[in-house]
TrEMBL record:
Subcellular location as annotated: Cell membrane
Taxonomic path: Bacteria, Bacillati, Bacillota, Clostridia, Eubacteriales
Annotated organism of origin: Clostridium felsineum
Name under which the protein is recorded: Isoprimeverose transporter
Membrane disposition: Multi-pass membrane protein
Keyword Lyase: no
Keyword entries, A-Z: Cell membrane, Membrane, Symport, Transmembrane, Transmembrane helix, Transport
InterPro entries listed in its UniProt record: MFS_2, MFS_trans_sf, Na/Gal_symport, Na/Gal_symport_CS
């Protein structure tokens, strides 16, 4: 599909848009990587209780996504349809991130209730910010290559956020703990992370523009329209399942990394480096994603990405725990594969929005992103629950030397379970039927059709 001026996005705007995912990942990566560890080893919640809480909170969060989606699609303000949520959600997002890592003087059920309340509130706030943020891509351009480019900037900066979290969060918490309590050090660390995230969301709001115009008849949305999408929008169904599986893997890998290095490898001081190497190599490959997307089919690119990640995980499983350098190399290989997956999978969502509008004359930008959010959060729920269950079943006890059974449980959760899930993801992508040529034809036809309708409306 050829670019045109209306669809062209400046590098400055792409960077500004990417700051949104930078912000979201500062908090999301902190939650994924450290909240379970914080609950079990700092706040003092049993691993089984924490695992069940992760499942419940994320299911509640996922159920809220369709509600948020319909709210977004019915929103129409002077700031646009999606950007207002970035403006008004930034400060609550920052405050709730800090509260999640705060340890008030509570005991028993009150402590668990506080954890539930703050985690649910942050998750819902994240949905109110992240769903419209993701859907904003489809309102910025209808050019396929520009969408991939925007997503590449987004993913690159998201990975920068993950690198900062991976390295700085444990470093800051450890540094602060030398002059204050461990619980206070974690709170101060998240004060820095959360505040930075809030500021970046405001920059994202200021930097971006919604320029895709849609006929008014395409914006008359009702909740039942999403069921019609599931009936006619096959790419959406396949992509939703794919997100479920991939984010299940991401959640498992994020949650178990600290246990793998602390207890299996036996080098707690290397946690920050292990986390950083799990993100940094991806920064090298992500800028090449737009080029790769032109050379490879979608299925080829996704399959190669997943297999690369699997190769790295096999290394983590088979290498002796004393082989630190090869373990870190394996972690880096997995990072490259994971970065390729992340950089490209989000670029496919605008295609499903366009395809759905082409089939039904309804543009469900917010709702479709909410559906994807529902599925990837269900994946997070399962992925967040699995490590806690395996740790509890294998006999894990915080702050103790772990039994061989517990160490084996950590190893299985780190590598084998994610590899099995990746096999499901590869099979799933076989059914994605929206190739480049088909999408180009559909998008061109839709733009021509919409232009005629907008002309009739005098827009």
């Amino acid at each position: 599909m050829k670019k045109n001026a209306a669809n062209s996005i400046s590098v400055r705007e792409k960077i500004g848009y990417g700051f949104g995912d930078f912000a979201c990942n500062l908090v999301y990566a902190s939650i994924s990587s450290y909240l379970l560890f914080f609950y079990t080893d700092v706040f003092g919640i049993a691993s089984s209780a924490a695992a069940f809480m992760f499942f419940i909170v994320r299911i509640i969060d996922a159920v809220s996504d369709p509600i948020v989606g319909i709210i977004i699609d019915k929103t129409n303000t002077k700031y646009g349809k999606f950007r207002p949520f970035l403006l008004y959600g930034a400060i609550p997002f920052a405050i709730l991130a800090i509260l999640c890592f705060t340890t008030p003087s509570l005991h028993g059920g009150a402590k668990l209730l506080y954890a539930y309340a703050t985690y649910i509130a942050l998750s819902v706030c994240y949905t109110l910010v992240n769903v419209p943020y993701g859907a904003l891509t489809s309102a910025m351009t209808q050019d396929q290559h520009e969408s991939v480019s925007i997503t590449t900037f987004r993913t690159f900066l998201a990975n920068i956020g993950q690198v900062i979290v991976a390295f700085c969060v444990p470093l800051l918490a450890d540094t602060f703990s030398k002059s204050m309590s461990l619980s206070r050090s974690w709170q101060l660390t998240m004060l820095i992370i959360g505040s930075t995230g809030g500021i970046l969301l405001l920059i994202c709001f200021k930097s971006t523009k919604e320029r895709v115009k849609v006929p008014s008849s395409h914006q008359k949305i009702k909740f039942s329209d999403i069921f019609e999408q599931f009936r006619v929008n096959r790419p959406l169904v396949v992509l939703a399942i794919f997100f479920l599986v991939i984010y299940g893997v991401k959640s498992i890998v994020s949650a178990t990394g600290v246990y793998y290095v602390t207890y299996y490898v036996g080098k707690a001081n290397l946690v920050k480096w292990y986390s950083a190497i799990g993100t940094f190599p991806a920064l090298i490959i992500i800028p090449f994603i737009p080029w790769l997307s032109r050379k490879l089919s979608k299925k080829q690119l996704m399959t190669i990405s997943i297999i690369t990640d699997i190769v790295g995980m096999v290394g983590l499983f088979i290498l002796p725990k004393t082989w630190i350098v090869p373990i870190f190399i394996s972690r880096g290989i997995a990072s490259v594969g994971n970065g390729m997956i992340s950089a490209y999978m989000w670029a496919l969502i605008p295609e499903t929005v366009e395809y759905g509008e082409w089939k039904t004359n309804k543009r469900l930008g917010g709702m479709i992103y909410a559906v994807i959010g529902f599925f990837f959060k269900c994946g997070n729920a399962l992925g967040g629950m699995i490590p806690g269950i395996v740790l509890a079943a294998s006999g894990y006890v915080a702050h103790k030397s772990q039994t061989p059974s517990a160490l084996h449980g950590i190893l299985i959760t780190t590598a084998i379970i994610p590899i099995c899930l990746y096999a499901v993801a590869i099979f799933c992508m076989r059914f994605y039927n929206l190739d480049k040529d088909t999408y180009s034809k559909i998008s061109a036809e839709l733009q021509k059709r919409n232009a005629l309708e907008l002309q009739k409306e005098g827009i």
